[in-house]
């Protein structure tokens, strides 16, 4: 259903932290022009943790409206309350998102059985294609391959964004259930390696600022052109590193401001990129022809 370069899109904000609708329109149009394969609205990079429910719903709805069928939209619907995740997934369905992305419940640290029941609950109650999201470094809980295997039998669970940092983990998930669900890379520095191992694409922070290169890199892998994919990934490597010098989305929002696509706004507890990193990020943008 989804493949290629899927941008984990930043949520534009004014300098005072209020949502910036014109900035949102600029970003969506930027991705349409540059052939991004899908947009993830209000994921981690979209500062989902600090948007209230009304704002969360608004950004998903407006992203779908602006996209207007020209690019697929996935709604970030994860929560550490199963009932909240269900409500967000239902909103994603109601506003016209093609899928819901559901991160593992954070902070609670549920068991594997708890994870299975959480995702199964949402899938059974909201008839929208759903993509699991495993990022133990942020959530404090790891969705193990055997649990993914169980969930792969649920009809509307169609994929997993894997961001554990382990190539071996991704390969095990693909071996166990790659014939039933698709795997997407959730760490930009490993996009090429995981796609070569069988991932169908990536949910990318780097695609915020270098969407054309990311699309072309993913397409080259899917088209069976490894030389082109490696050459394109080499041009992106500095960005993959620079955009994580501080916690995401701090560097990528600074980069988007440098590109004059958004204002500087973000919400506490996130703070602006430290001055010592500005030139590193700026040079990485230049290497990728983003500036």
From TrEMBL:
Pathway membership, UniProt: Amino-acid biosynthesis; L-lysine biosynthesis via DAP pathway; (S)-tetrahydrodipicolinate from L-aspartate: step 3/4
Binding site for pyruvate: 45, 203
Site (L-lysine inhibitor binding): 49, 80, 84, 106
Assigned keywords, A-Z: Amino-acid biosynthesis, Cytoplasm, Diaminopimelate biosynthesis, Lyase, Lysine biosynthesis, Schiff base
Positions of the record's site feature: Part of a proton relay during catalysis: 44, 107
Catalytic residues in the record: 133, 161
Family stated for the protein in its record: Belongs to the DapA family.
Quaternary context: Homotetramer; dimer of dimers.
Protein name, as recorded: 4-hydroxy-tetrahydrodipicolinate synthase
Origin species: Spiribacter curvatus
Gene: dapA
